[in-house]
Amino acid sequence: MKFAIQSRGDSTSNEICTKIKNYLTEFNLELNEETPDLVISVGGDGTLLEAFHTYVHRLKHTAFIGIHTGHLGFYADWQPKELEKLIIEIARTPFQVVEYPLLEIKIIPNDGEKEHRFLALNESSVKTPEGSVVFDVEIKGEHFETFRGDGLCISTPSGSTAYNKALGGAIIHPSLEAIQITEMASINNRVFRTVGSPLILPKHHTCILRPLNERSFLITVDHITKEYKDVKTIECRVAKEKVKFARFRPFPFWKRVHDSFIDDNQA
Ligand code: NAD
Question: Ligand 1, atom 17: nearest CA belongs to which residue?
Answer without folding.
Answer: 162
